[in-house]
Design goal:
single chain, 308 residues, alpha/beta, UDP-galactose 4-epimerase, domain 1, seven-stranded parallel beta sheet, three-stranded mixed beta sheet, 10 helices, NAD(P)-dependent oxidoreductase, RmlD-like-bd
Length: 308
């Protein structure tokens, strides 16, 4: 049984743990706090870890002995990173270095972001020069550089806006998809910018692609890969698709400029395109799904909650 250590137990970390465990991996989620809405499942465990502590990272790696390591760590709150840019820069770099140095030979995979770009290019590829304009983007660029400096076998997978179903009682702002659906099924208005574009990718599709890159028998992936969804959509258009899927009237949506929304600081485009990802086996038969398909698949989960 191959073993994977996932550093970070947030939305994507938990989805990746589920995917790997279903494929027969032994999985450990390592984070400072116990994962929310997660119970110990077959093949999975949680390890308490302050990944800023290098000695703690060494102990964790020695105790679990992973074949592969994945870095999905934070801080990922864009607003917090903007208020504490130096702290965010140091944390992302330190955690990346600690795990890469503690687990040599595990082909560490760092999950990065479209925020490494300034949003002027509608379809940035792996060859597009980075130009972050936010504290979070600069922190991730630093983490990418640290990984490639400390782990020659490491790879970076940049992902566009990740979305999917999340519980409504989380203490953090839900991903755009869940936030919109939860409000609409309860008859509440929702603000969606008309001038902020993204290439959304469902969390399970990200986990599936990442799992394929981690396979013990698979060739080592390129040092850098992009993963975005198959379509470039504005948040306002996406919100309209969600409203239709959950059976809510579009009159509940308020289409506004991003300057009048919580996305005022986001670039116009948070999109990704890839030159290399087409060669990943997981994408040959099952490319990432379109937002309409996912919205209709998940709509019953939100509709059921509206009656609780």
């Amino acid at each position: 049984m191959p073993r994977a250590l996932i550093v970070g137990s947030g939305f994507l970390g938990r989805a990746l743990a589920d995917t790997l465990a279903a494929d027969g991996w032994g999985v450990a989620l390592a984070s400072r706090n116990s994962p929310r809405h997660w119970g110990r499942s077959r093949g999975q465990t949680w390890l308490p870890l302050d990944a800023v502590d290098r000695e703690a990272c060494l102990r964790t790696v020695e105790g679990f002995a992973p074949d592969r390591t994945v870095l999905v760590h934070g801080p990922s709150d864009v607003t917090w990173c903007e208020r504490h840019p130096v702290r965010a820069w140091k944390l992302h770099g330190a955690i990346t270095a600690n795990i890469a140095l503690a687990a040599p030979g595990t082909r560490p995979l760092l999950i990065s972001t479209d925020s490494v770009f300034d949003g002027t290019d509608q379809h940035p590829t792996e060859a597009t020069p980075v130009h972050p304009v936010s504290g979070y983007g600069r922190a991730k660029v630093n983490a990418e550089r640290v990984l490639h400096t400390t782990a020659r076998d490491g790879s970076v997978l940049r992902v566009s806006l990740v979305y999917g179903y999340e519980f409504p009682n989380t203490d953090k702002w839900l991903n755009f998809f869940s936030a919109c659906a939860h409000r609409l099924v309860r008859g509440r208005t929702f603000l969606a910018p008309t001038d902020q574009w993204t290439t959304p990718v469902h969390v399970d599709d990200v986990a599936r692609v990442a799992g394929a890159l981690l396979e013990p028998g698979a060739p080592a992936p390129p040092p850098l890969l992009h993963l975005g969804g198959p379509e470039r959509v504005s948040r306002a258009a996406w919100a309209g698709t969600i409203a239709d899927a959950v059976g809510a009237p579009r009159s509940l949506l308020r289409a506004v400029p991003r300057a009048e929304s919580r996305y005022a600081s986001r670039p116009e485009n948070t999109c990704l395109s890839s030159t290399f990802l087409r060669d990943v086996p997981a994408l040959r038969d099952r490319p990432p799904r379109r937002v309409r398909e996912v919205a209709w698949d998940l709509a019953p989960m939100f509709q059921a909650e509206s009656h609780l």
